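Following up on my earlier message about heme C. Here are the inputs again, as you asked, copied directly from the submission form:
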Amino acid sequence: MAVKTWAYPIGNKSKWSYRESMKHLITNGAFAWGIALIAVSRVVSAGEPDQGRELYRKYCASCHGAQGTGDGPVSPHLKVKPTDLTRLKKENRGIYPLGKVMSSIDGTRDVRGHGDAKMPVWGEVFEKEAEAKRYPTLTSLLKVKVIAEYISTLQR
Ligand code: HEC
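Thanks, got it. Here's what our run produced:
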């Protein structure tokens, strides 16, 4: 299956951007891509704000807070304070940096400081959770995207 040849560069310091990855994925066959999307959209219905909120509450709110301001119940116990996710747009000259946020959440692409792993590498977590599914990498990518889109609605 063409899609399987798209290896996620987990763990290494690969500088693959989402753009390059997507390009690679697409050149691996629009057909496989289409099938994969149909398969995955059954698992994650991309674009549904409720889904994003649900995922955010489940995986992120404990640290980043229900509103995204970085004051979740776990945050006082952390050495590094969770980022205030409501300011991402403001801090990027008024443009919500979707791609960068996705890379930060995914974490497998060496965008944020790994080292002592202040924040879990969600790309690996989501992919592991979807291991039994047909397209774990795509499922993970879509989850990351849906969450990043939800965070865009929290901007102030
Ligand atoms: C265990 C606590 C914890 C959880 C859970 C958590 N984060 Fe974080 N997050 C952090 C901390 C701490 C930072 C700041 C330090 C860093 O950049 O690693 C951070 C930073 C970020 C950043 C900014 C990274 C950057 O490059 O500046 C984003 C975006 C983010 N988190 C999104 C998420 C999302 C989305 C989830 C849920 C899928 C999530 N976080 C879950 C602790 C957490």
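One observation from looking it over: The pocket of heme C is lined by residues 59-60, 62-64, 74, 78, 80, 82-83, 85, 101, 104-105, 111-113, 118-119, 122, 147 (CB under 6 Å). Hope that helps, and feel free to reply on this thread.
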